[in-house]
């Protein structure tokens, strides 16, 4: 059976590293992006130049109609997905809670939680054995911020990732009997462009491993959870955080 993977936020950072690694492991890859088409198409080109199959799909995952249209387009081009990596996310407002504005919070939760749930919904429609699917795997991107709290920098972001942890465990219980495994990876300080300027240099040397992580290191954990090697793993949250 053809393995078809959708990676949301697949044009940059951990999402891009995951898309490229998945292609090397035999997946056909749908690369989702919101605005930066050239970056997503560069990932697609790299996969195709190596002999793989990939395509880029524009969709704001917080937009329900856009998500449904994206999944329909992937059905047309690849067939139903058998893997989903929910990598798309934003940092949201930075600073203390007493400085927050509701508009920024609404955008944060629309992308980091509602968008993830919408993508899970569409994936289940295609994967569930109760709906005629062949089963599948879902991996959600959380963050160690969900247990560290983000005080002074990003409590709302940490809260959104705490919701991802709960979503992962609850959904895993809900759909395991339908042939769908759901897990999460919880990265720490990873050297990608989502990090605020100077944060990697400031925090990396103080971590137990004395450095920030790399996107490829997170992608390796994600590929394990997608693989048959993790066939008895569901509802798990894997820290990839350099020991923090």
What does this structure look like?
This protein has 244 residues and is an alpha/beta fold. It has helices at 13-24, 37-49, 64-78, 102-127, 145-148, 155-175, 199-203, 215-226; strands spanning 4-8, 28-33, 54-58, 83-86, 136-141, 180-187, 237-240. Helix 1 links the parallel strand 1 (4-8) and strand 2. Helix 1 runs parallel beside helix 2 (37-49), helix 3 packs parallel to helix 4 and helix 4 (102-127) packs parallel to helix 6 (155-175). The longest helix has 26 residues, at 102-127. It is globular, with a radius of gyration of 17 Å. The mean pLDDT is 95.
Q: How are the elements arranged and paired?
A:
Layout: E1 4-8, H1 13-24, E2 28-33, H2 37-49, E3 54-58, H3 64-78, E4 83-86, H4 102-127, E5 136-141, H5 145-148, H6 155-175, E6 180-187, H7 199-203, H8 215-226, E7 237-240
Helix pairs in contact: 1-2, 1-8, 3-4, 4-6
What is the CA-CA span between the terminal residues? Answer: 39 Å
- Total number of β-strand segments? 7
Rg on CA atoms, Å: 17 Å
Share of helix among residues?
A: 40-55%
Q: What is the subunit arrangement here?
A: single chain
The biggest sheet amounts to: 7 strands, parallel
Going by helix content, strand content and strand pairing, the class is: alpha/beta
Instruction: Specify the overall morphology.
Output: globular
Number of helices: 8
Spatial ordering of strands, largest sheet: 3-2-1-4-5-6-7
């Amino acid at each position: 059976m053809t393995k078809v993977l959708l990676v949301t936020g697949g044009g940059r950072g951990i999402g891009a590293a995951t898309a490229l690694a998945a292609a090397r492991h035999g997946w056909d890859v749908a690369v989702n992006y919101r605005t930066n088409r050239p970056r997503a198409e560069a990932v697609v080109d790299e996969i195709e130049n190596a002999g793989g199959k990939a395509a880029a799909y524009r969709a704001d995952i917080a937009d329900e109609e856009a998500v449904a249209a994206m999944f329909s387009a992937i059905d047309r081009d690849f067939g139903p997905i058998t893997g989903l990596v929910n990598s798309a996310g934003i940092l949201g407002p930075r600073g203390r809670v007493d400085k927050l504005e509701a508009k920024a919070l609404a955008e944060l939760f629309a992308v980091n939680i509602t968008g993830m749930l919408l993508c899970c919904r569409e994936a289940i429609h295609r994967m569930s054995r109760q709906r005629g699917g062949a089963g599948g795997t879902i991996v959600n991107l959380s963050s160690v911020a969900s247990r560290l709290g983000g005080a002074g920098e990003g409590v709302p972001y940490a809260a959104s990732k705490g919701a991802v942890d709960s979503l992962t465990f609850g959904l895993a219980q809900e759909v395991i009997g339908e042939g769908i495994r759901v897990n999460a990876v919880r990265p720490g300080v990873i050297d990608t462009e989502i990090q605020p300027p100077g944060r990697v240099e400031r925090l990396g040397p103080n971590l137990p491993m004395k450095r920030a992580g790399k996107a490829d290191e997170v992608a390796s954990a994600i590929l394990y959870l997608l693989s048959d090697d993790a066939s008895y793993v569901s509802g798990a949250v894997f820290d990839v955080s350099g020991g923090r």
